Amino acid sequence: MDNSFRDDLPGRKRDLLHDQAALVTGASSGIGEAIAKALAGAGARVVVNFSSNEEAANGVVQDIRNGGGEAIALRANVSKEDQVLAMFEAMFKEYGTIDILVNNAGVQKDAKFTDMTLTQWQLVLDINLTGQFLCAREAAKEFIRRGLVPERSLAAGKIICISSVHETIPWAGHINYAASKGGIMMMMKTMAQELAPYKIRVNSIAPGAIKTRINRGAWETPEAEAKLLELIPYKRVGETRDIGAVAVWLASDESDYVNGTTIFVDGGMLLYPAFARGG
Ligand code: BGC
User: Taking each helix axis from N to C terminus, what angle separates 240-251 and 30-41, rounded to the nearest 10 degrees?
Assistant: First the structure.
C-alpha cells in the first residue's frame, strides 16, 4: 500500500482541490502518476487515463483509494478523437463534469534528423501535441457550458499542459519531441488568451530531467547521472513528486492570477550552465 503521496503536499493542504474533478492523461506511470496522486491527495476526484497498461493504471487507482482518495481509470489514446470523446463522456457520467485537465500524455521516439521517419515524426506530434489539443478542446467546451461554480473554485476551469524545457532548449536527435513541445507552448498561450474571458486558466509546467522511464538511460548508471548533472545547476535529478506539487498549486485557487505562462521545474537547467565557467 502506497500512501506516501498523501505527504507530498507542502503544508499537507488536503482540501485545496476539494470536490473538484480532474483528468490526468498518461497517468499510469511516471510524471502523470505522481500528478494524479498529488491531485487526489489535495481532495480531487481523479480520472487516471492510460492508453495500454491497464494493470498499472488500476494500481494507481488502488493506491489513491488506499490513501482515502477517489479515482477511476479510463482508457483512451489521446491522439484518437473518438477515444477522447468517449473518455470525456465516461468521465461526465462518473463525476458529472471536469474542473481540472492535466495534459500529460507524451512520448519520445528519438532519431537523428536525417534518419527520422515520417512515422516517428507523426507519432510524437500526434500524441504530444494533437492529443493535448483534443483533450483541451473537450475540457474547455465543458468549462464554458457549465460556467463558474464558486463553491469549488474561483476559475471556471483549469488546464495544465505538461511541456518540457525543450519548449525552449533545442535538442539534437529529438526534433519531433522538441517541435511538439514548442508547439505546446504556443497552443497553451493561444488557449489562455482565447479562454481567459470565460474565467478559464491555462498554463504549462515544463519539467527538466525528472527520473522516469522516458529518460532512464540518462540517469540509471552513476556515469550517466554525473553527465546529466552537468546540465543541472541545482545538482540533483528531479523526482516526479517535484512536478506533482507544482501541479496541485497551479490547479488550485492559490495560483488564481497565474494565466498563460510556463513554470519551469528543472533545477535551473535553463540557466545555460556551461556559462558558469565560460563566455
Ligand atoms: C525529456 C527527458 C529529458 C529532459 C531534459 C524531458 O522533456 O522527456 O528525456 O531528460 O527533458 O533534457
Answer: 50
